[in-house]
Amino acid sequence: MTMGKKKTPTRNKSKTTTNNYWCGRENSNSMQANHGTAVAALRKKDKRLRNIINACGPCTLKPKRGYFEALCRAIVGQQLAVKAAATIYERFRKLFANGRPNPDELLRIPKRKLRAAGLSNQKMSYLLDLAIHFTEGTIPHRRLSRMTDDDVIETLTIVKGIGVWTAQMFLMFVLARPDVWPTGDLGIRRALERSFEVSTEASLDDLEQMGEPWRPYRSYAAWYLWRSLDAVPVK
Fold first, then answer.
1. For the chain, which end, N or C, has fewer CB atoms within 10 Å of the first or last residue's CB respectively?
2. Same structural domain, 161 and 94
3. Is residue 185 annotated as part of the catalytic site, yes or no?
4. Catalytic residue among 185, 205, 206, 230
């Protein structure tokens, strides 16, 4: 998974690895679209998407708490297989007193312990930069849920190692925003190729146009497209 500090989306691994990095504690107080309304709208707009929805069942996108944890998990999981990422993240998590990563405590953990957990020097620098932005308030975590999608992306991508794709996944899987369309995601491209006969050579602009009919529920469309690639339940 390539998550460089870029302002334009790039191709990334499919949903099969995506959701494993975005689990967290549910936040029932966060704003999100009504699942029933969103799914009904998508069913009406597109027959092929309706068939995918029928095959895949209810969407399980839900807002989460623990913003810092979610972003740490995403950074740790970069360019790693799911199992390896989970192993390293578990070691990383255990470095914290209550098993829950927080920025103040992370800045006090000796680098030798972070290395021993399996983190590369590059990922350590990303995590420490994230912690600094949280502690200094340049990432206003108490306001993220009230910020626009574009402002969330602009805010998160100031952190080393967090690019547009990571910020989009945060919007979808942590804030449960209803209208995110990650055209740079390889899983989206594969699903569109399989179910909508979209060429593998389609440009990002072409993919952007492909999602237009699904506004304002493109996050749901993306979720179902990812889900159509395999039968593993999305959490």
1. C
2. yes
3. yes
4. 185
